[in-house]
Amino acid sequence: MTTSPTTSAGPSPLPTCALPDSPLAKAAAGLDACVHCGFCLPACPTYVNLQDENDSPRGRLLLMRRLLDGELDVRDPDVGTHMDRCLGCRACETACPSGVPYGQLLEATRATTRVARPVPLVARVVLGVFQREMLLSLVLVGARVLRATRLPDWLARVLPARLAFPFAMLASTTPARLPQASAHDRVLHRVRVRASQARRTVVRLDGCVMRGLFAHTNAATTRVLSATAHTVRSAPGQGCCGALHAHAGDLDAARDMARRNIAAFERVPDALIAVNSAGCGAMLKEYGHLLHDDPAWHARAEAVASRVRDVSELLADRLLPAAREASPAAPTARDSAHGAASSPPVRIAYDPPCHLMHAQRITREPQAVLSAIPGVELVPLVDADQCCGSAGIYNLVEPDTSDAVLAPKLRHVADARVEWLVSGNPGCLMQLGAGLMRSGSSTRAVHPIDLLDHALQAAPAERVGEPDLA
Ligand code: SF4
Ligand code: SF4
Q1: For ligand 1, what atom is nearest to the CA of residue 58?
Q2: I need a surface site. Which of 68, 70, 413, 440 has the fewest CB within 10 A?
Q3: Could you give the CA distance from residue 233 to residue 5 in angstroms, rounded to a whole number?
């Protein structure tokens, strides 16, 4: 450890920082909050699966401290390996009783070490594409064309696992074919919307992957918000939120993207910002922290961040639980003859995105949205709070650990025997969808808003209570 010279007369001086002015040094106060209790260890997917203290939150925090104290070098490949293996899922933050801001410390550490360590080629390529709007648009158009050929479905089945997985991820973004409700269900089980809510103006974050590969979910989001007393406006000029870059330690690129989005959303000043991608929502809500060193943008970033809402937050107070009871009048023989009998509920399970549950601490609202969807039965999923192994581009740069984290998730989904696995984040949907496809499961991954929209498309919402005030 590097320390200042000591004298026998005075108190021991504080260690000298080996990385002055680095992002990690600026975030170091967060390290002091760790009391090394280890409560975070069982919550950490990499520790649970790899059983190495260096791959636990407590271990990584100790590595960060040793970097600052000069006991470890920023070029140390072992330090890089353990930092790279972190999913950034932030389950450790939820488990931590001391409030250690682990996510911020991880990003600061990666920003500090990336100047001394080469970034993997795959990561450089992906981050470079997401930084260039035109190039990203071209890549996403190409991906959509490829998806439409159904070639990725075939390649996902015939190629070796490592090569097949990206094709399975792309194939899993194909809009889900949801079951048709019977006439009986459509009449008796309509989505119930609270009628006495004041109309809110919102602007939708279009996103990059959401815009490119989940355009159907973006459209569904607008329809669902419109059906629940929201006026949806557009904010031209917005782009990728910068989360991938921030998580990889490229804070300068993330800040550039944040400034662009802040300027775009400032053009619609009175609107809440509706986000249907948990990772993007977490990033937007942290724009103030991302730009805390920028006097020209910090207040603007805080103002925009304060307007950001996950779409489930916007919907939770607008929807009422679906009627679950049996129909008051049993279907008659004539109903059955005309295909009007009530269908058995569709079994679904919810896998909360880490950046919704741990980074944004949103748990109740998605459950409220799911409970409002008629004709479904929400089945508990074991270890639902554990990461699926997607984590941005983690599944591309750390495929072995990603597979190890995904495997128990797929086993739990199989045990739940559900038709649909619901998650509100594109990365999770692609990771889970690809894993399910590759394992031969008939379960499909779907965004909760697609399920809700499907129910609203089948039959108009039932307005309950006072007439709409708008
Ligand atoms: S990060 Fe929190 S939970 Fe983990 S060891 Fe430190 S204080 Fe304990
Ligand atoms: S962010 Fe997730 S993977 Fe990383 S240390 Fe925390 S719990 Fe473990």
Answers
A1: 5
A2: 440
A3: 62
Tell whether ligand 2 has an atom less than 6 A from the beta carbon of residue 90. Answer: yes
User: What is the number of the ligand closest to the CA of 96?
Assistant: 1
How many other CB atoms are found less than 10 A from the CB of residue 138? 12
The runs of H, that is alpha helices, within 287-425 are: 287-290, 298-305, 311-316, 333-337, 354-357, 364-371, 394-397, 399-416
The tens digit of pLDDT for each residue in 436-467 reads 999 999 999 999 999 999 999 988 888 888 55
400 pLDDT higher than 50: yes
Residues 77 and 140 occupy one common structural domain: no
Per-residue confidence (pLDDT) for residue 283, from 0 to 100: 98
Helix 251-266 vs helix 298-305: crossing angle, to nearest 10:
70
- pLDDT score of 137 more than 60: yes
Q: Which amino acid is at 459?
A: A
Mean pLDDT of 395-424: 96
Q: Is residue 159 located within the same domain as residue 37?
A: no
Can you give the pLDDT at residue 152? 97
Per-residue pLDDT at 85 exceeds 70: yes
- Among 113, 146, 162, the domain boundary falls at 113
Is residue 263 scored above 70 in pLDDT? yes
Structure tokens at 413: 């989904």
What is the rounded average pLDDT for all residues in the chain?
91
CATH of the domain at 109: 1.10.1060.10
Q: Give the domain extent around 66.
A: 23-113
Closest atom of ligand 2 to 93 CA is 6
DSSP assignment letter at 3: B
Confidence check: pLDDT of 2 > 50: no
CA–CA distance, 282 with 309 (Å, rounded to integer): 9
Ligand nearest to the CA of 389: 2
The answer, yes or no, to whether any atom of ligand 1 lies below 6 A from the CB of 39, is yes
Q: Nearest ligand to the C-alpha of residue 45?
A: 2
pLDDT above 60 (res 331): no
Contact 197, 469 (CB under 8 A): yes
* Structure confidence at residue 9 (pLDDT): 44
Question: What's the gap in Å between 96 CA and the centre of ligand 1?
Answer: 5
Q: At residue 328, does pLDDT exceed 50? A: no
| Ligand 2 atom 5 nearest Cα | 57
Question: Which ligand 1 atom is the nearest neighbour of the CA of 102?
Answer: 1
- What is the C-alpha to C-alpha distance for residues 12 and 160, in angstroms, rounded to an integer? 58
Please indicate whether residue 44, judged by its CB atom, sits closer than 6 Å to ligand 2.
yes
Q: Is 410 in the pocket of ligand 2 (CB under 6 A)?
A: no
pLDDT at 17: 87
Q: Let me know whether 451 and 406 are in one domain.
A: yes
Which ligand is in closest contact with the Cα of 34? 1
Asked whether 34 lines ligand 1 (CB < 6 A), one says yes
Q: What pTM was computed for the model? A: 0.90
Counting from 1 in the atom list of ligand 2, the atom nearest the Cα of 43 is 7
Q: Which atom of ligand 2 is nearest to the CA of 85?
A: 3
